[in-house]
Specification:
Layout lengths: L17 H14 L3 H19 L10 H13 L4 H20 L26 H8 L7 H16 L3 H5 L6 E2 L4 E5 L5 E5 L2 H19 L18 H14 L10 H12 L4 H8 L4 H22 L4
């Protein structure tokens, strides 16, 4: 129809409520939204209109209970949290528009919380892949020896890469086998290193580190050839280089060894709260994602060893 706006002419539908049509015109005029966004608004609001119509309730009289029942019905029909969150976002935009225009007195979405969208499981390495990665540096070379010590510390402690490259000599107590970290929110934590990391650190500190620095001085534990602090980006390139050398085909991230540290601890029966403290997470729910990684790994192992079960 020639007199229709680009907003209301999208995907014509006989069930389009006039209030929805006015809303689509308004948001298109205000913000020049993309065709896909307008189509999503229209589809979400048409679905709600149709559902309300079966209950003989116009969309202008939607209550909070109506929306809660609609969301429950959608979830019961198998809707995913991300899809439900997108629909709720459309409804919020619509009812806030009606409220602003004085067409309703109360926003029915005001007290409805967004569904929690699950975070993607972090990629982890198997213990065999970690061993191959740790063995990749040429340790007779001073920089290779430094890299091996860094990888050992990272896997032994679960440090963030930023914490590793900023690690100062004074934060390490090799006699006690611990490092002291001041993490996010200025929270301090003491982390045990383990025998292997202590061995590699001792070798690096009393040998390769001095060769790298020559006569230069720095407080940083893992200096570059120039005597500077290593950047996160530089260490990330180092990890990728050694992953290629170790024939690890998985896509890695700067936190891959941190993820492996947490997952392997849980695989071996570590308490979740202990892992939370070691990682420096303020909220246990952040650590809980690793229980899913660990359980997925256990399922894979079970399927491999018991293919018919």
């Amino acid at each position: 129809m020639p007199n229709e706006s680009p907003a209301t002419s999208l995907l014509p539908h006989p069930e389009l409520d006039p209030a929805v049509g006015r809303f689509l015109d308004a948001v298109w005029m205000e913000r020049g939204l993309s065709t896909n966004t307008l189509a999503a608004y229209r589809a979400d609001l048409t679905a709600l209109t149709r559902w309300l119509g079966l209950r003989r309730r116009p969309i202008m009289r939607t209550s909070r209970q109506d929306l809660q029942e609609f969301i429950a019905w959608r979830i019961g029909a198998g809707a995913r949290p991300r899809s439900t969150a997108r629909q709720l976002s459309s409804f919020r935009r619509f009812f806030r528009y009606l409220l602003r225009e004085g067409q309703i007195q109360e926003d029915p979405t005001a007290q409805i919380a967004m569904p929690k969208i699950g975070r993607a499981l972090p990629k982890s390495l198997t213990e065999e892949e970690v061993e191959a990665l740790l063995a990749a540096p040429a340790v007779r070379d001073p920089l290779g020896n430094r890299d091996r010590a860094m990888l050992e510390v990272l896997y032994a402690t679960g440090l963030r890469v930023s914490e590793l490259v900023n690690l100062r000599y004074a934060q390490v107590n090799l006699n006690q086998g611990v490092i002291r970290i001041l993490g996010k929110g200025n929270r301090e934590r003491l982390i045990p290193l383990g025998d292997e990391a202590v061995r590699w650190l001792n070798e690096f500190v009393h040998g390769a580190r001095e060769e790298i620095l020559l006569e230069r001085q720095t407080d940083y534990l893992f200096p570059t050839r120039r005597g500077d602090r290593m950047t996160r980006q530089a260490f990330w390139h180092i990890i990728k280089r050694y992953a290629r050398k170790a024939s690890i085909a998985k896509g890695l991230s700067p936190h891959t060894l941190r993820h492996a540290f947490a997952t392997h601890l849980l695989n071996h029966g570590a308490d979740l709260r202990v892992v939370q403290i070691l990682l420096g997470h303020s909220d246990l729910s952040t650590t809980q994602i690793y229980t899913h990684v660990a359980s997925e790994r256990m399922k894979d192992l079970h399927a491999r060893h018991h293919p018919r079960s």
